[in-house]
UniProtKB/TrEMBL annotation:
Domain HTH tetR-type: 20-80
Organism ancestry: Bacteria, Pseudomonadati, Pseudomonadota, Alphaproteobacteria, Sphingomonadales
Alphabetic keyword roster: DNA-binding, Transcription, Transcription regulation
InterPro entries linked to this entry: Homeodomain-like_sf, HTH-type_TetR-like_transc_reg, HTH_TetR, MT1864/Rv1816-like_C, Tet_transcr_reg_TetR-rel_C_sf
Protein's name according to its UniProt entry: TetR family transcriptional regulator
Organism annotation: Sphingomonas albertensis
Length: 193
C-alpha cells in the first residue's frame, strides 16, 4: 500500500489545492483565517489543513510561524497600500487624495482588524524608515507635496498624518470611539490632511 496509499491520501487532502503556487495559496488561506481570529491563534498546521496539504509541505515555504506571519503582514501591507492608492486616485490626488488615503487607512483597519493589528505588531516588520513599499512611498510623496505648499517639513507632515490615521483606527478597533464613516471623514478633514 505504501506509495499508492500515500498518493491517494495526498489527493484526498489536497481538496482545494492543485498544482501551482503553494506559497501564495498558504498566504491566501492565512489571510482568510485571520478574518476569523487574531494572528496569535493562527498555526502552520491549520493553514496547511485549510489549503489541503500536509504540514510538512508548509515548512518548505515557511520554516516557522514567524515566517508565515511576516508573509501575511507583507501581503496585508500591500493590500493596505492598494486601498490607499485607489482612494487617493479616485479623489484626484493632491490634498483631497491625501485625505482619501487617510480615510482608506482607517476603513481598511476596520474591515481587517486582525490583519491590521498583525501588520504593525509583527516582530519581523521593519520600521517606516527602513521600508520602501508602496504605502510609505505614497505617504512620503503626498507629505512632501503638502509640506512644499505650506513651507513645512515633509517628515513631520508624514508622521502627523500617519499618527492621526493610525490612532483613529486603533481607537475605533478598541471601541473607544464609534466606528462610524462620518467620524472618520470629519476627523481626517478637520486635521487638514
Amino acid at each position: 500500500m505504501g506509495v499508492k496509499g500515500n498518493t491517494v491520501n495526498m489527493q484526498e487532502r489536497s481538496g482545494s489545492y492543485h498544482h501551482g503556487d503553494l506559497r501564495a495559496a498558504l498566504v491566501e488561506a492565512g489571510l482568510r483565517l485571520l478574518a476569523e481570529r487574531s494572528g496569535d491563534g493562527l498555526g502552520l498546521r491549520e493553514v496547511a489543513r485549510a489549503v489541503g496539504v500536509s504540514a510538512t509541505s508548509v515548512y518548505r515555504h515557511f520554516p516557522d510561524k514567524t515566517a508565515l506571519l511576516e508573509a501575511l503582514a507583507a501581503e496585508g501591507l500591500a493590500r493596505l497600500a492598494a486601498a490607499q492608492r485607489s482612494a487617493s486616485e479616485a479623489a484626484g490626488g493632491g490634498t483631497a487624495g491625501f485625505s482619501a488615503s487617510g480615510t482608506a487607512y482607517v476603513r481598511f483597519a476596520l474591515a481587517n482588524p486582525a490583519l491590521f493589528r498583525m501588520i504593525f505588531a509583527n516582530p519581523g516588520a521593519r520600521t517606516a524608515a527602513e521600508r520602501d513599499d508602496d504605502a510609505i512611498a505614497m505617504l512620503r510623496d503626498n507629505a512632501a507635496t503638502l509640506a512644499a505648499g505650506n513651507g513645512g517639513n515633509a517628515e513631520v507632515v508624514m508622521l502627523k498624518a500617519w499618527a492621526l490615521a493610525h490612532g483613529l483606527a486603533m481607537l475605533m478597533l478598541d471601541q473607544q470611539v464609534p466606528a462610524d464613516d462620518k467620524i472618520i471623514d470629519d476627523v481626517v478633514t478637520a486635521a487638514g490632511l
